[in-house]
Amino acid sequence: MTKVEWELFLSKFIDAKGYQSVLDGLVTTIEIAVFGLLIGIVIGTLIALIKMIPKYHFAPRFFSCICDIYIAIFRGTPMVVQLLIGWFVLLPAIGLRMDSTTVAIIIFGMNSGAYVSEIMRSGIQSVDSGQLEAARALGLGYWTSMFKVVVPQGVKNILPTLGNEFIVLIKETSVVSFIAVVDITKAFRQIGDSNYSYMIPYLMLAAVYLILVLLISLGVKAMERSLRKSDRN
């Protein structure tokens, strides 16, 4: 890294207010990952519960099959392909107008749901079966027992894995520029494009992602310690 490269970077980052686009891109990156994870948790929990319903009748088997197809599609295709199909194929086909950031959030949420469903299912299965039986014995219905008794305990067991899923989503947001979303990757790329010097912008980009991942990891560890304390109390 030469002095000239630093001068070019700083002139664009500070003098030309490139930092503003970087901050906006950072907010967009976090927004997509956070809302994508929340949507993924909702979808994943529903899929996990559906797949755990006893398959005595046709309806549970049918919906379980639909969930398997959903999981296979979203786990079997790259995120960038899902974004491209959603933005360039599905939206025009159904005639729906939606901004690219919203599309990215929805696609990330649906993709995350496929992974969170297996995470959630393992967490629910880790809860002693006696918890569900006790809740049913007290007169609670199946869904009430699952949502109020089993699922909260399962979430505590899979918190570190959910933290890893959030980290994965943060890093995967780097592909949203394919559908014209200006995330942090796109913002630093624009700085590099302005003077055709990419070394410093991309190193800064890597540093930002690293800091984000470290902060998330510290946050997850703090929540784990808090949960362990509450269990002891």
Short description:
This protein is an all-alpha fold and 233 residues long. It contains 10 helices and no strands. The longest helix has 35 residues, at 18-52.
Q: How would you describe what is shown here?
A:
- With 233 residues, the protein is mainly α.
- The chain has 10 helices and no strands.
- The protein has helices at 3-15, 18-52, 58-76, 79-94, 100-125, 129-137, 142-157, 159-172, 184-195, 199-232.
- Helix 3 (58-76) crosses helix 5, helix 8 runs antiparallel to helix 10 (199-232) and helix 9 packs antiparallel against helix 10.
- The longest helix is centred in the N-terminal third of the chain and has 35 residues, at 18-52.
- It is elongated.
How are the SSEs placed, and which strands pair?
Layout: H1 3-15, H2 18-52, H3 58-76, H4 79-94, H5 100-125, H6 129-137, H7 142-157, H8 159-172, H9 184-195, H10 199-232
List keywords for this structure.
single chain; 233 residues; mainly alpha; 0% strand; elongated
How would a crystallographer describe the biggest sheet?
none
Strand content: under 5%
Distance between the first and last residues' Cα: 54 Å
Supply the number of helical segments. Answer: 10
Structural class: mainly alpha
**Number of separate strands:** 0
Low-confidence stretches: none
Described by its quaternary structure, the protein is single chain
Note the overall shape.
elongated
Rounded to the nearest angstrom, the radius of gyration is 22 Å
Mean pLDDT: 88
Helix content: over 70%
| H/E element order | HHHHHHHHHH
